[in-house]
Amino acid sequence: MLDPQRQIDHIAEFADSSIRVVNRPGSLVGVPGAYGLKRWLYARLGDRGNAIYTVLGSFVAIALSGAAAWAFDEPLLFPSLGATAFLFFETPMAEIASPRNALVGHGVAILAAVGALAVFGLIDAPSAYEVGVVPARIGTVALAVALTGGALRLLRSAHPPAGATTIIVASGLLDEPHQLLAVLVGVMILIVACHLLNRAMGVAVPRWAPPG
Question: Which domain range does residue 191 map to?
Fold first, then answer.
């Protein structure tokens, strides 16, 4: 059985890193050191204030990503970014919501999917949404998800939304070289937007990763 400190460290890998110094009953508590709008919302409305914070941050961040996609006519906005945005504002101090985990997570997801596509000979093949799901596509998606999960485990960069990104690529929805680059750029745009919004609204999120 793990000793109490080891248990706290184990939980903190996937939860708010502040659990290492403060016992927390859940993700919707006040973030230690919060200021500005974040602190005001929580002081006035408690959990409802945190919900409003998540709504505001997610709306603006995704709107900015959408505006970039529209302006450049590139797939800079895709489904898994919604989950990433949610993490950035729901658990802003969590390791899984850090810029490191988000960038490494989606980057590994793309590489894993491309590798799986090559293994099953589906590079340049029509997507599953055009020709339907075939055994090779099932193997591709399964391998991509498995490789993503294993690699992120080894890199200690867990980021659940990456599982969606690897399926998007492995299914052939976005698998052209310029599309893969656009996916990565879209991730970086969202990371920067969420980081700046958190800091502007009252959470001093880490620039790269929480202190270990």
Answer: 34-201
